[in-house]
């Protein structure tokens, strides 16, 4: 295969540039870390109010709450990250092949997430029960941990940038160092058998998110002598989402991040900082907001969560199984699809007949159900649904542009057959 063939599809590369982040990537890299600090300071020091101090002195006072790294936080996170890497490498689990790469090869992935997840929970529970680890340690160290993980991630992305430069020819970076630092230089950087992108997508960030939630609930118990129903709903829903992720771990191999996104600052910082520190905002907010909810409210929130889950998981699994075996029935009937000139098949039945991204729709319903238990006293707990809506709207546009560039007329046929982007009959 010559070099041109080995490169990613040039039209897709162009679409990726055009509908990617433009120059906003720089603004994102500069603005997002302070935003995470801002949210944490609001929820921790201002009772969850969104505060906008007036004047330089007031802002200085506001930012003075930023916690510098502590050795305790460094040791906690360092041992956490290394332990999770060791589990990823050495724990047993089936080996599964990833999707085909531009050079025709496929990578092997060790799918031992559930094993590692359960072992981690067991070990942490054991350490807490023995009194060797304080149940509230992650909540108490949240500020220093935020600084440690931020510093670590900026450095780690530098390592990824350099490591990726020796990657495959079709991964060739743009040559703009800061942009490449942001977007990444390699699709699947690996150290030995450790696939850094798959590892960071799931283990050190997602499992940390769950442990932080549990630590936050423990803090509410320590402070108020109870764990409220809203706290149980948030922690329960998010734990369910994580357990579900590990049950269907293999489905991650057909997602956008794994297939298309190189592993640079954006994914790395998103996985390690943004996810655990902003997805726990609702639980952080609830620590000192101990309201309860009416029975009908609880029932409605649970129904929203379960409906969203059924759509989200159903759509993702249908696509996953269809891509692996197009002869497998969808909803008990032969799958309907469009065959593209490129060879890929686009499913048009089941959930994929309602809109082109029903999985996003389900995910948005789930995200809303994570916010509603916080009730309506402050907009801060709703930060998640606002951000997530923006993320998925933007992602859908990028995906649509890239698929149009890749599939051309076949994608137009698909659009005609399934006209709605995310929400059937609405958007
Ligand atoms: N919680 C979070 O923070 C978070 C963040 C992001 C995403 N997610 C969730 O992760 C899941 C995966 O999202 P994703 O962004 O990777 O999008 P996705 O919808 O799973 O994947 C899009 C890709 O699937 C293929 N495709 C599109 N339409 C198809 C069809 N009709 N039939 C078969 N293949 C089709 C195309 O790739 P090819 O044709 O090139 O193969 C397209 O690029 C979603 O449920 C999303 O909500 C969660």
């Amino acid at each position: 295969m010559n070099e041109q063939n080995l490169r990613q599809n040039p039209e897709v590369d162009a679409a990726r540039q055009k509908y990617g982040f433009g120059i906003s990537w720089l603004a994102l890299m500069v603005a997002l870390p302070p935003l995470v600090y801002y949210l944490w300071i609001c929820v921790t020091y201002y009772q969850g109010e969104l505060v906008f101090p007036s004047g330089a002195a007031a802002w200085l006072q506001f930012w003075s709450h930023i916690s510098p790294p502590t050795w305790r936080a460094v040791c906690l996170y360092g041992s956490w990250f290394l332990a999770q890497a060791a589990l990823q490498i050495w724990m047993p689990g089936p080996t599964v092949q990833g999707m085909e790469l531009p050079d025709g090869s496929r990578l092997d992935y060790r799918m031992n997430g559930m094993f590692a997840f359960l072992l981690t929970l067991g070990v942490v529970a054991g350490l807490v029960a023995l009194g060797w680890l304080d149940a509230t340690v992650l909540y108490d160290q949240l500020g220093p941990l935020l600084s440690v993980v931020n510093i670590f991630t900026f450095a780690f992305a530098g390592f990824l940038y350099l490591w990726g430069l020796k990657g495959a020819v079709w991964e060739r970076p743009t040559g703009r160092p800061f942009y490449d630092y942001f977007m990444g230089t390699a699709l699947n950087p690996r150290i030995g058998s450790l696939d850094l992108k798959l590892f960071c997508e799931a283990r050190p960030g997602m499992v940390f998110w769950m442990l932080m939630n549990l630590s936050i609930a423990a803090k509410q118990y320590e402070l108020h002598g109870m764990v409220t129903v809203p706290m149980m709903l948030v922690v329960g829903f998010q734990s369910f989402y994580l357990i579900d992720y590990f049950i269907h771990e293999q489905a991650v191999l057909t997602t956008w991040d794994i297939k298309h996104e190189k592993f640079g600052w954006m994914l790395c910082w998103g996985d390690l900082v943004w996810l655990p520190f902003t997805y726990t905002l609702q639980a952080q907010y609830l620590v000192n907001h101990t309201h309860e909810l009416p029975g009908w409210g609880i029932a409605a929130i649970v129904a929203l969560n379960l409906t969203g889950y059924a759509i989200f998981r159903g759509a993702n699994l249908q696509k996953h199984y269809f891509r692996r075996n197009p002869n497998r029935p969808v909803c008990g009937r032969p799958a309907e699809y469009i065959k593209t000139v490129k060879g890929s098949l686009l499913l048009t039945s089941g959930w994929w007949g309602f809109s082109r991204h029903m999985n996003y729709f389900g995910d948005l319903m789930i995200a809303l159900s994570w916010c509603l238990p916080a009730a309506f006293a402050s907009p801060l707990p709703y930060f998640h649904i606002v951000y997530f809506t923006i993320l998925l709207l933007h992602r859908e546009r990028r995906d649509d542009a890239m698929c149009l560039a890749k599939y051309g007329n076949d994608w137009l046929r698909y659009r005609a057959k399934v006209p709605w982007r995310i929400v059937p009959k609405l958007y």
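The pocket of NAP is lined by residues 255-256, 312, 316, 319, 323, 344, 346-347, 352, 357, 359-360, 363, 395, 399, 403 (CB under 6 Å). The radius of gyration is 22 Å.
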